[in-house]
Amino acid sequence: MCAAALAGVLAVSALDRAAGAEARDGLRDGLEQMVADGFPGAVAYVRDGTREERAASGLGDVERRVPAAIGDRFRIASNTKAFVSTVLLQLEGEGRLSLADSVERWLPGTVVGNGYRGAEISLRQLLNHTSGVHDPTTEAEFFAPYLQDGDRDRVISPREVIRRAVEHGPDFAPGERWGYSNTNYLLAGLVIEAVTGRSAPEEIDLRIVQPLGLDGTYFPVSESSVAGRHLRGYDLDGQDMTRFSTSYDWTAGAMVSTVDDLARFHRALFGGELLPERQQRALLETVRLPDAPRYGLGVQRIEVPCEDGDPDGDGSGADGRSVEAWMTDGGGPGYTSVAVGSADGRRQLVLVGNVFDLAEELAGRAPVPRSEAVARLQRAALCG
């Protein structure tokens, strides 16, 4: 899901104040439309240069009728992957590993047998999803304990997920194709631990969360709840999905954050604050394979059409104009979020809606409400 909002206000003149008021109204109107379209609540951060705006609409807790609030925490799901790739790239910049290293070098005996050769899978291929390692979390059977048996506290360790992936066999030979797999990032998390001797969540905290002052961000390992004030998450039928152990997701998608913290992380990452120049280039080098998205190392390059419609089918709008942007996103039980910024660093948005229906996704159907407001606000945020 890609999502949206309008640029904001740090007004210093009458004109700026008028523009800021219009932006606030547009942002709130968009969020209110998302709520009308089926999201119980939505929260957004938007930026245009130094001007910022934040807004929330709807309910963060349906049962208690508590409004969604700007600082509410939420599970960021696969946005976590960018934190993990950043740590591995930092370690490479320190000379402690190379992205050309094999999985077997750092995790001997972990990805072998049943068609796997860990010595032929590089760390880069884990991060850009060209490894061919299978993802068992795409299978309905995997989630039966949670969704069918109702055991939302079930802990499934990363190594158990990896074991099931190896048991299944590879989806394709390393480098042959592109295929999104959460298992890749579980392996990446284990590599961080093998290199540093500390837990992956601790490394992320020490290297990114603390230095950037991301006070609303943390990394639960096996907890089923979300600490502090937070949005409650729901499925499409309105069932509360907030209590859900994401132990299986670990370094593939278990982190908790806020819209402001994700925005700060993105500014630092794409602004070159976190990586040496060589590793920054590696982060943004996208896969060059037929039918592959423009996926880098935990981040994706997209084109945002600037008008309604896409007559040419190339991602541009009706007038052919589009904006290049970098994006991370995440969808997991109860929460859908996106963080996206223009490639020139000027414009940015972070949006969360508190619906994601895992069962619908596993059945191959849309896991979130359909809302035209999302695309309209994204265009407004990034195209101006």
What does this structure look like?
- The protein is an alpha+beta fold and 384 residues long.
- The chain has 13 helices and eleven strands.
- A hairpin with a 2-residue loop joins strand 9 and strand 10.
- The radius of gyration is 20 Å and the shape is globular.
- The two termini are 20 Å apart.
Which blocks of ≥5 consecutive residues have pLDDT under 50?
Answer: 1-19
How many runs of DSSP E, i.e. beta strands? 11
Shape: globular
The main pleated sheet reads as: 7 strands, antiparallel
Total number of helices: 13
What is the spatial order of strands in the main beta sheet? 3-2-1-11-10-9-8
Give the overall average pLDDT.
Answer: 92
Percent helix, as a range, is 25-40%
| Rg calc | 20 Å
| Category from helices, strands and their pairing | alpha+beta
Amount of beta strand: 15-25%
Distance between termini?
Answer: 20 Å
What series of H and E elements makes up the topology? HEEEEHHEEHHHHHHEHHEEEEHH
How would you sum up this structure in a few lines?
The chain has about 375 residues and is an alpha+beta fold. It has helices spanning about 15-35, 80-95, 105, 125, 145, 160-170, 180-195, 200-210, 250-255, 260-270, 275-285, 360, 370-384, and strands at about 40-50, 50-60, 65, 75, 110-115, 115, 255, 300-305, 320-330, 335-340, 345-355. α2 (about 80-95) runs parallel beside α7 and α2 runs antiparallel to α11 (about 275-285).
